[in-house]
Structure to design on (403 residues):
């Protein structure tokens, strides 16, 4: 017979162990999946290798930041702070997880680390005409400002209210894509506000070069564009790289390679308008000050979707190769420093996000409300590259132009 007193003592721990629920990584599933998400994703499951292997040892842990990362704020209607203080001013402020909000927290840690963005948000909010032009997106900008203020405190963790997260399009228990959330925050600031400062900070610009191989002799004589590639400017964009090679540089090589266009992909001759064989190549004409790179690990080509944890090596410094650039690109040969990484652990429809950010020359792992100092050495980098045998891998890289 079980000792009654012992049973009563152990009951809370038994309930806690049985009550953990996982969250979904992507909100684009079918109706049944969405209903299941709403039922099952009130709390997050910690990644199986959250602390990494022995090579990702934490060099210094914030002794005042030992809070759990789930639902720390008992009153989710009002923002609040933890009673613990940060170890020093460079230590990032953790963000409470209010239920499948790790995608949001990991992205906010990266955006908060970009000073020019915080400065421009303040300027936009002070401009009544600009805020009016934003329409419903003005709530998003105000919420971003309030969260940034909370993250500027000396508290070890900030617990935003759910109303603030709702203004950022957060949905209870629905896990979304961290990179998509970054775009949802930045695009209104660039497109709706017509903010050239933020545009130059984040947008990549490319040109597309096409060569048409029309066999009609008269066309070749009349239109030299059929022989020489002509570049057309593309709108500014964020950089999304297919995971097709085993290093970041090779993925950029693949992005900029010459593509042969035949069959259904033929081009029209500029003179006779007939469909002809040709080539196409996309090259960079300008790089931003802050280069955000999505590694496209989620593949939907087969209709069902899958996640690619394929190894993609990257380093603390990225040098722009001339072969990726147009002749008039001013950023040829410049270098970028790695300042942040968003990691995803899990499969296509479930998992967990966290961030690594560099502040004051030190690296920190921001896992919701938990923040630890880490050593971003080669061993930790290798652990972030990805591996077909693992479930966690770098998903979004943040680089800052070297001054």
């Amino acid at each position: 017979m079980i000792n009654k007193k012992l049973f009563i003592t152990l009951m809370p721990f038994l309930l806690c162990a049985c009550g953990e629920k996982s969250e979904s990584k992507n909100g684009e599933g079918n109706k049944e999946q969405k209903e299941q998400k709403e039922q099952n994703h009130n709390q997050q499951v910690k990644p199986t290798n959250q602390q990494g292997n022995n090579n990702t040892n934490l060099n210094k842990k914030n002794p005042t930041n030992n809070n759990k990362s789930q639902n720390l704020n008992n009153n989710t209607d009002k923002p609040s702070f933890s009673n613990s203080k940060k170890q020093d001013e460079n230590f990032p402020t953790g963000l409470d997880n209010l239920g499948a909000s790790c995608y949001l927290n990991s992205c906010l840690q990266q955006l908060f680390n970009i000073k020019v963005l915080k400065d421009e948000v303040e300027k936009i909010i002070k401009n009544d005409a600009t805020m009016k032009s934003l329409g419903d997106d003005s709530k998003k900008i105000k919420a971003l400002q309030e969260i940034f203020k909370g993250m500027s405190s000396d508290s070890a963790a900030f617990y935003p209210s759910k109303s603030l997260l709702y203004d950022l399009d957060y949905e209870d228990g629905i896990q979304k894509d961290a990179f998509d959330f970054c775009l949802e925050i930045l695009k209104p600031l660039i497109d709706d506000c017509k903010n050239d400062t933020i545009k130059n900070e984040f947008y990549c610009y490319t040109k597309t070069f096409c060569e048409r191989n029309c066999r009609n002799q008269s066309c070749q004589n009349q239109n030299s564009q059929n022989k020489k590639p002509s570049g057309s400017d593309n709108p500014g964009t964020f950089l999304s790289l297919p995971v097709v090679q085993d290093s970041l540089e090779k993925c950029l090589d693949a992005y900029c390679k010459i593509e042969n266009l035949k069959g259904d992909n033929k081009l029209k001759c500029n003179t006779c308008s007939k469909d002809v064989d040709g080539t196409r190549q996309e090259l960079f004409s300008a790089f931003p000050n802050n280069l955000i790179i999505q590694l496209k690990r989620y593949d939907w080509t087969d209709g069902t979707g899958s996640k690619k944890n394929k190894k993609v090596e990257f380093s603390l410094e990225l040098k722009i190769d001339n072969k990726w650039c147009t002749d008039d690109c001013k950023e040829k040969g410049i270098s970028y420093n790695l300042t942040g990484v968003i990691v995803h652990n899990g499969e296509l429809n479930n998992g967990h996000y966290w961030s690594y950010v560099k502040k004051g020359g030190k690296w920190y792992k921001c896992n919701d409300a938990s923040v630890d100092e880490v050593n971003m050495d080669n061993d930790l980098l290798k652990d972030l590259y990805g591996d077909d045998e693992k479930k966690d891998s770098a998903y979004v890289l943040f680089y800052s132009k070297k001054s």
